[in-house]
Amino acid sequence: MDFNNYPPKQKFLNSRARRFIRIKTIRFLKQFLPKQVKDVYIKKLHRELWLDASWNTNFIVFTISACLIATFGLISNSTAVIIGAMLIAPLMLPLRAMAFAALEGDFPLFRKGLFSIIGATIMAFLLSNIAGHLVDLPEFGSEVLARTQPNLVDLAIAVVAGGISAFAKVRKGVSDAVAGTAIAVALMPPLCVVGLSSSQEQYYFSKGAFLLYLTNLLGITLSCMIVFILAGYTKISHALGWTLALTSILVLPLGASFFQLVRQAQLTTEITNKLINETITVGEGVNNSHIEVDWTQDPPIVYITLQTDKDINSKQAALVETFISRKMGQPFELVFIVDKVIRIPTDNNVLPK
Where does the sequence pass through the membrane (predicted)? Predict the structure, then answer.
């Protein structure tokens, strides 16, 4: 479109319209850019974070309480009890202070927060380890196992939780308890799993739970840094780059675990379909069936729960096991759990006339 052909008045109006749109666009975009906060508010945040990072009686009591509640919840396999530990959130406070201190280059605050994090980590590990030795569980429940195979989803949860925590700190009118709950979900339970599993010398579970703990620490720290920068309380520094680099390193094992989880879900579905559709033992004359695969064992164990009036012997089970192993291209161990159904017909001759 050639504006030169317009009359002078129209050219003036078009020029004003373009200038108006440009100004409005710039103002709109500026809303999302970090705005420098006044020094008085930055100093206020620093004082609060200094207190949050303190290793004092309150912090120690909260750490011990959260650890014991989470440990007992894991031992009893109770989600409700674990949620109780989430409400205390002792590790959130120094971790948030560390994120701010790293960006500001404030070594005393960073050292103070790091000392509290390390102290709480050692304390929680020892308490959960001692509890594991005292209880001496033969096997762990689903709440423990769920925290031994971290993946990219767990990293995403940690990032969101850290963002909520930092947002609650810099935003007026937002309760810190909301953020504390989110952080506790990601920190205390996996740390207690490390202690419990190591007490039973199940170091494979310990390694996975510790990886989850590190993932959550870095994910939360990274998102806290980003929120502090966007809120205008600090500026971008090399600390953000280092944190991002360390978090990126964890993407490799977490990504591999995620794709392994997806693959296992696909294999479980495929095994279920083959058992139901291609075997007589499971697919015919069965009222109800439920199939689960325990991928933590080597070889994986397939638990097949059946409600049927048929008699299933060890030879039939061995044939099905051989069939599944051959079809899937890897060895599997099958365990049949049969809930015997007895059909009792009625006898109308015994009814009173």
Answer: 53-75, 81-102, 114-132, 177-198, 210-233, 240-262
